[in-house]
Amino acid sequence: MIDIARKENKKIIILVTASQIQEALDLYDAGADYVVMPHFLGGNYVSVLIEKFDVGLNKILEHKLLHIKELRERHILGQEHPQ
Questions:
Q1: What Å distances lie between residue 69 and 28, 46, 56, CA to CA?
Q2: What are phi and psi of 82, to 5 degrees?
Q3: Does residue 45 share a domain with residue 23?
Q4: Are residues 28 and 48 located together in one domain of the fold?
Q5: Measured distance CA(25)–CA(54) in Å, rounded
Q6: What pLDDT, on a 0 to 100 scale, did the predictor assign at position 39?
Q7: Number of alpha carbons in the 13 Å side-chain half-sphere of residue 17
Q8: Residue 82, domain member (yes or no)
Q9: pTM over 0.85
């Protein structure tokens, strides 16, 4: 698909996802501009949250309520995974 996309539009930016390191490396070899690895992003996100929450419990609870709201909205839409 990367080859087809590049042939159609030489200026296209190709972002793809991978779940395994070898898969990501293969996608880079195939010409992907950037490969998102959700498991690694999740770890990075948690570290950002920990730094944010260093300010206190109130920030954690505030973020928790927003997260619960988002999860409930996604559940109503029938989503099991973020889309």
A1: 37, 19, 21
A2: -55, 140
A3: no
A4: no
A5: 35
A6: 83
A7: 7
A8: no
A9: no
